[in-house]
Specification:
Layout lengths: L23 H28 L5 H11 L7 E2 L2 E2 L3 H12 L3 H21 L2 H13 L4 E4 L15 E5 L2 E12 L6 E8 L2 E8 L5 E5 L11 E12 L11 H35 L1 E2 L2 E2 L4 H29 L5 H26 L10 H11 L6 H13 L6
Parallel strand pairs: 3-6
Antiparallel strand pairs: 1-2, 4-5, 5-9, 6-7, 8-9, 10-11
Keywords: FAD, Flavoprotein, Oxidoreductase, Transit peptide
InterPro entries: Acyl-CoA_DH_CS, Acyl-CoA_Oxase/DH_mid-dom, Acyl-CoA_Oxase/DH_mid-dom_sf, AcylCo_DH-like_C, AcylCo_DH/oxidase_C, AcylCoA_DH/ox_N, AcylCoA_DH/ox_N_sf, AcylCoA_DH/oxidase_NM_dom_sf
Protein name: glutaryl-CoA dehydrogenase (ETF)
């Protein structure tokens, strides 16, 4: 009589086997990015975080370009043309190392490149996208201002006509990669509404200054952009971008990456806590054997797998062309909150060791403080969901 065997025990790192639903190509991309991250990023990221910078951003950009993750979900112009889910998986694996490194890729691909790809002229696309995809050039996205974050429509940066040219004046704040960028996608108010412009970093009147003394996203370069009488020809304007909807659509692309990235940060904290609890001995046995620790780990397993399920579902909706922007808001709100809970629990399991850079948990905790507020605060995403289900706007 043949012995009947039950299902295999769940894998601790993918308890609900969420990744089993990935296609073969998506799994291959996952493995490639995960291997690259473990080999090239993880051994260095604690030092970069402590130093508060990325020592050689151009070398990192070329490495990411060689990996094929810049604009990988876009088609043509040297971009890989993968599924949205594959891009999300890559973001997850990068943020499992550090949120700042995922932001490097997100800003390049989902903000700067996506804006050019969607709203640029053929000449702009041909000029910039292949170089950005290869990591031979770095781009940034100038929307946020010192007094204009959650309400980008109140921006003060202005673009005015001067003959056949445009002249831009204003300040942009909290711009990832700004001081190392070769080109900035800058959004400005005009007499005809919000418009986007491609500003080469060498343009007179354009300056970018690195912001220091950050306590979050330290393995990342964050900058202030100042535009003082920046004169641009008409062909620097993104011709298909009209109104605030254009930059907001780019932000939605970046938020999609955050939905997946937060799941990666959560997984990294949980796995660090699981490993630590299994080796840390107190009262004669590993702390993983105590009920209170196991309850924390069980809650972490639920949060990590809920986050992965949410990301996977939104990825498939996006691949089918059926993803509404409020569903991305749902994902960012839910997954960042889940990641914060997991990081806090992991920090407690690590005890005093949890505050050091020898372990990843506090670094992730600090990064998630930024992830919770950029690309839309949790309050804004909650109100977005509230409007979607009630039909009543509560922003004003």
């Amino acid at each position: 009589m043949t012995e009947q065997r039950g299902p295999a025990a769940p894998a601790p790192d993918d308890f609900l086997a969420v990744d089993a639903a990935l296609t073969g190509e998506e799994q291959a991309i996952r493995d490639t990015v995960r291997d690259f991250a473990a080999r090239e990023l993880l051994p260095n990221v604690a030092d970069w975080f402590e130093a508060g910078t990325i020592p050689d951003p151009r070398a990192l950009a070329k490495a990411f370009g060689g990996l094929g993750v810049f604009g990988m979900h876009l088609t043509g112009y040297g971009c890989a043309g993968t599924s949205a889910t594959a891009y999300g998986v890559a973001c997850r694996e990068l943020e499992a190392v550090d949120s700042g490194l995922r932001s490097f890729v997100s800003v390049q691909g989902s903000l700067a490149m996506a804006a050019i790809h969607k709203y640029g002229s053929e000449e702009q696309k041909a000029s910039w996208l292949p170089r950005l995809a290869a990591g031979e050039a770095i781009g940034c996205f100038g929307l946020t201002e010192p007094d204009s974050g959650s309400d980008p429509g109140s921006m003060r940066t202005r673009a005015r006509r001067s003959g056949s040219d445009w002249v831009l004046d204003g300040t942009k704040m909290w711009i990832t990669n700004g001081s190392v960028a070769d080109v900035a996608v800058v959004w400005a108010a005009t007499d005809d509404g919000i418009r986007g412009f491609l500003v080469p970093a060498s343009t007179p009147g354009f300056t970018a200054t690195t912001i220091h003394r950050k306590l979050s996203l330290r393995a990342s370069i964050t900058s202030e952009l100042v535009l003082d009488g920046v004169r641009l020809p008409e062909d620097a304007r993104l011709p298909a971008a009209a109104g605030l909807g254009a930059p907001l659509s780019c932000l939605n692309e970046a938020r999609f990456g955050i939905v997946w990235g937060a799941a990666g940060a959560a997984r990294a904290c949980y796995l660090a806590a699981l490993d630590y609890a299994g080796t840390r001995v107190q009262f004669g046995r590993p702390i993983a054997g105590f009920q209170l620790t196991q309850r924390k780990l069980a809650d972490m397993v639920v949060d990590v797998n809920h986050a992965n399920l949410t990301a996977a579902r939104i990825g498939r909706l996006k691949d089918a062309g059926q993803c509404h922007h409020t569903q991305v808001s749902f994902g960012k709100l839910a997954n960042v909150a889940a990641a914060q809970r997991v990081a806090a629990a992991a920090r407690s399991i690590h005890g005093a060791n949890g505050i050091t850079l020898e372990y990843p948990v506090l670094r992730h905790m600090l990064n998630l403080e930024t992830v919770a507020t950029y690309e839309g605060t949790e309050e804004v995403h909650a109100l977005s969901i509230g409007q979607a289900v009630t039909g009543l706007p509560a922003f004003r």
